[in-house]
Design a protein that fits this description.
Helix content is 39%, strand content 17%. The protein is built from eight helices and ten strands. The strands form two sheets. Strands 1-2-3-4-5-6-9 form a seven-stranded parallel β-barrel, surrounded by four helices. Strands 7-8 form a two-stranded antiparallel ribbon.
Length: 245
Amino acid sequence: MQTHIDINADVGEGIGNESELMPLISSCNIACGGHAGDVETMKSVSLLAKKHGVKIGAHPSFPDRENFGRHPMDISSIALYISIKKQIKDLIHVLDAEHLHLHHIKPHGALYNLAAVDEKIASVIIEVLKCLMLRVKLYVPYNSVIAKLAIENQIPIIYEAFADRNYNADLTLVSRTEPHAIIHDSNTLFEHVYSMVSNEKVKTITGELVTIKAETFCIHGDNPEAYLLISELSNRLASKSIQIR
């Protein structure tokens, strides 16, 4: 069983809770202009991450602020490529000015979900990384299309799972339109994560146990209970000799 895990959170999305979350997490995904974020928020959140020793990741999205990047977007591969590339470069420019480095990339929302199952979308993300010649990690779902493409292209990956989201049997996330998509109860969340860490199994929304692998676990920064959930999870994991780092 793993003796340590990474906990990541999406930040710079206008919620304003970064100062609360940073002491509790070990990596963060900074919105870089697609669904949220601008130069000022990227800078302020990056400096908070630096202060707390939190690894910094880019959180590119479909360029769709109106829908917070959570709906599939009718966009050409070329336009999507240009947008993702610009978002990542914008964050890198901010980090360079502060003498910080980019640790990973994690797509946001609908872009993340589609890249898990759609080779066309996944290929766009992979091509951006190849063009930028970034040797950063790519946070990806286990057994996903984008994970397989990244491995084929020698792009280092870290398997990610969601601490505060329920899963379907095919390891896709339960749609946010469904009543039990998001986990709000701290006990349920701990059991959810601990099963994935200790047994590499996730209990799906239909009650099945499905194999899953993950080294980093996301709790969404825009979840109103994020601070309390992460605090409780950290304490419960520590009681099982599992550290967050």
